User: Fold these one by one.
Assistant:
Number 1:
Amino acid sequence: MSEPIAMADQDSIIDVNDVSMIFNIASEQFNSLKEYFIALMRHELRFKEFRALDHIDFHVRRGEAFGLVGTNGSGKSTMLKVIAGVLKASEGCCQVRGTIAPLIELGAGFDMELTAKENIYLNGSLLGYRKDFIDAHFQEIVDFAELQDFMDMPLKNYSSGMVARIAFAIATITEPDILIVDETLSVGDFLFQQKCERRIKELVDSNNVTVLLVSHSIDLVERMCDRVCWIEKGKQRMLGPTAEVCAAYKRLGA
């Protein structure tokens, strides 16, 4: 059974209160922009409502590792983007207390024409780091990413796994209040994945960092998370301890 919907309390760092995300999709296809604007001017344009999220409600406690699971297109990543402030909820509200280090889309905040070194400073500034802070931690970032010999190479020549290494190293160089991870750990070799897992566990064990994890790897969710919310086709199916929710989710494909 799922746990009762938790009420926000003083230890809550993320409050998702009855959140819905609604997109309007054109109900017919047009072969050109001209046809689209003609239909628009004639008030013949019709839309159908698509609820990517439908009345989602949960609260995440400070220092908790919280997972979101669901099949492809279920609304997990949309939920993360609402929490990160990338999207504004159509209905309900989402309140976040503290700083966020988002690892949502690989390459976001990077300029692929610049070198890896230049991108460390660029991405770091987007996360709110001062130049002197990046100067002081630059070697630490490079060492964690294990890309010492590639710092002067344009990022466009990097593999997705190499980009993931830099993104993760920058985002976790300090202790954010909330670390949002969306499938980032599925990219790259298994040794670096294990290294990232150890770093996340260190952050969680410090009791200062809250981790919000989305992954198609249920094994990873079971290893990392304290509680899990299962979202399916935009609706909240279950909320509770990791073992219970993951067991129910696994039965979906049985």
Note: Strands lie at 12-26, 47-61, 65-69, 91-96, 100-103, 178-182, 210-214, 227-232, 235-241.
Number 2:
Amino acid sequence: MEQLAGPRETESFYALLKKGNKSSAIAMIGNAVIAAIKGFAAAFSGSGAMFASAMHSLADAVNQGFVFLGSVLSEKKPTPKFPTGFGRVINIFCMIAVIVVTIMAYETIKEGIHLLQHPVHSEGGFWLNVIVLVVNLLVDGAILVKAMKEIIHESRAETIGTGLIMAAFKNVGRAAPPTRLVFYEDLVAVTGALLALIAVVVTSLTNFALLDGLSTIMIGLLMVGVAFRVGYDNMVGLIGVAAPKDVEEKVAQIIFSDPYVTDINKIRIMQEGRYYHVEALMELRPGMSLADADDVKLRVRDKLIADPDITDVVLGIIEDNGVRNWTKDLVNENA
């Protein structure tokens, strides 16, 4: 154990920085630029929808900054004081991001209500608003596609062509917390930019000025939805959540790949951030010597720890009791 402590203590911040979530870093930079452009356009044209969209982009930029920092810190290796690692640190930073989104959502909804009570007719900047929102759609759309690809990569899912969208929605729960946050926020960002674009066009060409306020409120409500979704996911992550069944089945297959393992008496796999901690009690063939049984345990442990998603493995061994304990339909029943 002392030999492992040395490299962990000398781990540089730059090395951790390179392990940070790339999706959140790209989203932070992109949304900061978009927020500045939108803020200028909103001040020039007086568009409430543009203001709401700028607030959303600003919230996204701040959030992604927090989340990227959290993803960097969560990559720290376990230490004697924190033997299970720092995976849940990212959940704390994501909860901070939820607070930011909630505040921005409140301000956006309040602005929308004000615009309903006191409609503002845009007197200029139509093409500026349109250009800004089109750029917004392109940038946030690109970030959203990047997040979808990260979801597929982190969940080890397979997809071809247009199946990317469906696969991303299906596997988003298995992605790392930062990637999930980027996905949800940019999904709302693209929708909000479309609503803002519609509001700018309609209020500029017609007398329906109330649409500006309605669009602003809708964008704020979408932000509230993101806050609740991300907040729930990270609250569950902080409490401690079991790994998906397919992950448990994959771990079981690795354990059963050793010919001397006859059954799994108990198994518990906890997810922390995007990593898993495995605890299992294996049943071995009767009559094995302690030395041979210990060799089996070490061999299975090495196979499990070789998986890039598994950071901690605790295995126990007992002699086969003659009762089948593990089946695919009863994963973790005995945990």
Note: The radius of gyration is 25 Å.
Number 3:
Amino acid sequence: MSKKHDAIFDDVLSDLDTPAQPQARESARFLKRSTTISDRLSGELEEKTLRWVDPSECRMWERHNRDYDLLNEENCRDLIDGIRAQGRQEFAAVVRPIDDPQYKYEVICGARRHFAISWLRANNYTQFKYLIEPREMSDEEAFRLADIENREREDISDYERAIDYGDAIARYYGGKQKAMAERLEVSQPWLSRYLALASLPAQIVGAFPSIRDLKERHARDLKPLLARPVTADPVLAQAAKIEVQQQSARNGRGPFVDPADVVKQLRQAAELPKVKPVRKTDESIYRRSSGEKGIIARKKGRKFQIEFEESLSEASLRGAFDVFIRERFGK
């Protein structure tokens, strides 16, 4: 580097080391305040109130779209490790204040974060607190907010989402699918598939290893089979049998039935047994007289097969053959 360049860099660096004059600092602070006020007035800046709280002060919203009981150290390990590495929770959970002597807030979005912080505090990391953003909102607003946050997440199951939609359509939208789809900004066919999943019978749900294994596509596969009693009854009966095996596996006795195999067994149960067609035979009985035993003549192709009981007397047998010959040859 030339001496001229060295001189330029030395000049720049010397300016950085020079303490700012009080007047310059005051001007900078005034400019920052002015910019902030301008951003607020223009709507480009929105301030939020965040709090660090003990997670025990928060309960899950009773209509939260995630089953909190399914959360554990294993399926929250990535979040637990991330918070521990960062030294804090980076993204605030959304909660709303409640009137409850045991809790101050209920969690609308942030169940996994709540579990992770609670787990860390219970495992010798008591310095961690739960970062929340309190908001005032209605139940319908809370439902839509939770849905928007979790709609694309893979760690919330199709069935959890479906149950949430099934409850919401009756609770907030008067059972009107179109109104709900418009409010959520989704297509009606898409919403319809999840509502079908939510309406699956309990036997079908129990036939899968867990609700996390029950997918929207399974409802599509099974819906036609459940639409008719002739196939629905055997499908539900088979589902009940599979559920017993799955419950044994949950209790540590035996393996789970794989979800794909569950669907396969249910489809097989819906298949009607194939009835063998009755083979038509050209068969006639010939007797010497009414009330007597006679002979049975079956025509098979160009042959006759004659059958009679061993106990048939000679006279009855001859008489029966005479009748057969007369009818056969018109004598």
Note: The longest strand covers residues 295-300.
